[in-house]
Amino acid sequence: MLAVVVLFACLGGSFSAIPPYIKVCSRNDPELSRCIIESVNDLKPRLATGKISGDFQIPPLEPLALSTVNMDRGAEFKATFSDLIVSGASKFRIDNLQANLETLIFDFNIFLPKLTFKGKYDLKIKLLFLNVAGAGDLTGQTENIYARVKVVCEKYIKNGKEYIRVKKQLVRIQIENGQFDLKDLFRKDPVLSQVGNQFINENSRLFLDELTPGLERSLAETFRKMANEIIQHSSFEELYPV
């Protein structure tokens, strides 16, 4: 869910011919951060559907599809989440945006009140004294998601013009609450599966803390690539005119 948010918070819309309904922010605007946030907020309905203009579309935020998130922290923690469908991402709020066009560094906070999701999981982890392992269908929800995002861009020359690309993206996520239903835990033993899900949900803070670092890395790299695919179509001058 952070991909489109990061992209538009940084760049305020990236098109070779920017449509009139996209609020373009001047690089000399003394309230540049406020302008960017307003531009993003104006775009929220289009971000939800993914239909930015007649000839330009991006993956929609409602629902948001994520292919695969891999996490591997050794023998006691391996997890793969795939075919994820996430709802609620369009309800994001951007706060405390700091945009520096000299260094091309953008820092901001994102808040999401609630996300619901479904997909597939395959995991083998150790939580306290319990070894949890299984593969199957996953459903769940998380509430009060806070993210601190730092996007570092760099300029490059293409066809005699300056363009920018995302060099590095850092994401730090804090999730307040979560509930999960993992089918077929303990390899289709229904009793142990119920016990495992109960244990995970009673210790959701531990479960989320284990998942978060891998999720941060996977999302940051995935969305860095996605952002660069989109912003390559507009020069720096088109994105931020004087």
General description of the model:
With 242 residues, the protein is an alpha+beta fold. The protein contains 5 helices and 8 strands. The protein is elongated. The N terminus is likely disordered.
- Number of strand elements: 8
Straight-line distance between termini:
31 Å
Fraction in beta strands: 35-45%
Structural class estimated from helices and strands: alpha+beta
Domains (count): 1
Mean pLDDT: 81
String of helices and strands: HHEEEEEEEEHHH
Low-pLDDT stretches: 1-6, 12-16
Shape: elongated
Put simply, the count of helices is 5
CATH fold type: Bactericidal permeability-increasing protein, domain 1
By CATH, the architecture is named Super Roll
Q: CATH H level: which superfamily?
A: TULIP domain
Q: From the alpha carbons, calculate the radius of gyration and give it in angstroms.
A: 20 Å
CATH C-level label: Alpha Beta
The description of the largest β-sheet is: 6 strands, antiparallel
Helix content: 25-40%
Pfam families: JHBP
Organism: Anopheles sinensis (Mosquito)
Signal peptide: 1-16
Keywords: Biological rhythms, Signal
SSE blueprint and pairings:
Layout: H1 2-11, H2 32-49, E1 51-53, E2 56-57, E3 64-72, E4 77-87, E5 93-100, E6 105-127, E7 130-158, E8 161-182, H3 190-202, H4 204-231, H5 236-239
Antiparallel strand pairs: 1-2, 3-4, 4-6, 5-6, 6-7, 7-8
Pfam families: JHBP
Organism: Anopheles sinensis (Mosquito)
Protein name: Hemolymph juvenile hormone binding protein
